[in-house]
Amino acid sequence: MLLIAALVICGMVTYLLRYVDHGKEWALYFSRANSGSTGQLVDRNGITLAYFNGVDNYFSPDRITRAANYHVTGDYWGRTGTGILSRYWNDMQGFSLLTGTTRKEDSLLTLCIDARLNDQIYLSLGEESTGCMLVCNYRTGELLGMVSTPSVDPIDGEGAVRDGAFINRCLSASYTPGSIFKLVTAAAAIENLPNLSQRTWYCEHEVKIAGVPITCMADHYTQTFEQALANSCNVAFAQIAVELGQSTMIQYVTDYGFLSGHSIDGIPTVKGNYPTEFVGDPETGWSGIGQSTDLVCPYSMLRFLCAVANGGTLVEPHILQNDTPAITQLVNPNTADRLGQMMNYNAVEHYHAETMFPGMTVCAKTGTAELGDGTSHSWFVGFLADADHPYAFVTLVERGGFGITAAGSVASEVMQWAVENLDA
Ligand SMILES: [Zn+2]
């Protein structure tokens, strides 16, 4: 008798625990498309991106808006796990564990995202491209733009989509960073190498580290630290990484959050990679210039840039309005200021800032990440040093070639649009 009673109690406790944990999914699983609730998902300007009336589920009537915002909204069928509809469906249904019913009143979820900005990013990237772009207000942490291509028109249902279209490349992929990673190496150098301002590095196309050649794009000859970053000199930055040492590099990559997964209002992002086992000087050199086994998730780079742009203080990016973001000191304030000045020097001296970013104070770094098969990812990352337009951005075009041409021209178009059309 006692044994049977114990078994019954065990069973009930297990059931209750599982009910609390999974009750929402059980209740809503079979009625995902028709739970009787009504609600909508709107952008920061009140543009409707998705709404449901208890019988049918809808998206924006505009095809470009649907595709441009697909990785933000997700869909009602959970085909992209990082979409808002996937993450917040149960909450929007308002399922109650006590009564076992869904809510009667409308649910409204307002995003920080500007759907028109996403439309512009989508058009600038091009429907046929493979890449992504993030734009964030680094003062408030509001995520304003997030687009991944190829995308999906959610009302196509089971229609053909391009390979990998359900992946949000901003959050769920990590890439060889190439020269954008020199920003991390530069930050570590600013804090650890003495007399940095008095030093120079000499580049004649190649440096041998422990007998292993590391090559550069050009002969840069004698350069200051600032010039080496603007030249994106592999010879200089490989030597800087070796001088810092692998353990110091690991510490900075870790502290800046590149090896962690993050959460945007509960939506997870993937970790990056950096060689953490001992690899020796030549490989440390390669890792310091964003090659080796380095991998960076675009979102992690956005967080780092937001902190640099905001004097070192990170206002954690978030996608839901009414959210109070966490605030942390991610980067030393002096390091952030110096890095920002160097990135502005890059843009002015090397990236044709006057024509690409007219009227803007842009701070940026390009990346051309070689993939070993002759192709390269094109990166362009940075921010506007402008109190009225405090935008940080990360742009990536997969196998796009040179950073400045592919990703740089997307960033140029999008930032011009943003400055003209966004309020703040
Ligand atoms: Zn060089």
Describe the structure in brief.
By secondary structure, this protein is α+β, with helices and mostly antiparallel strands. The chain has helices spanning 2-29, 63-68, 70-73, 84-93, 115-125, 169-172, 182-192, 225-231, 234-244, 246-255, 281-288, 298-309, 333-350, 353-356, 406-421; strands spanning 39-42, 48-52, 57-59, 107-110, 131-137, 143-149, 200-203, 206-209, 212-215, 221-224, 263-264, 267-268, 313-315, 327-329, 362-370, 376-384, 391-397.
Topology:
Elements: H1 2-29, E1 39-42, E2 48-52, E3 57-59, H2 63-68, H3 70-73, H4 84-93, E4 107-110, H5 115-125, E5 131-137, E6 143-149, H6 169-172, H7 182-192, E7 200-203, E8 206-209, E9 212-215, E10 221-224, H8 225-231, H9 234-244, H10 246-255, E11 263-264, E12 267-268, H11 281-288, H12 298-309, E13 313-315, E14 327-329, H13 333-350, H14 353-356, E15 362-370, E16 376-384, E17 391-397, H15 406-421
Bound molecules: zinc ion (ZN).
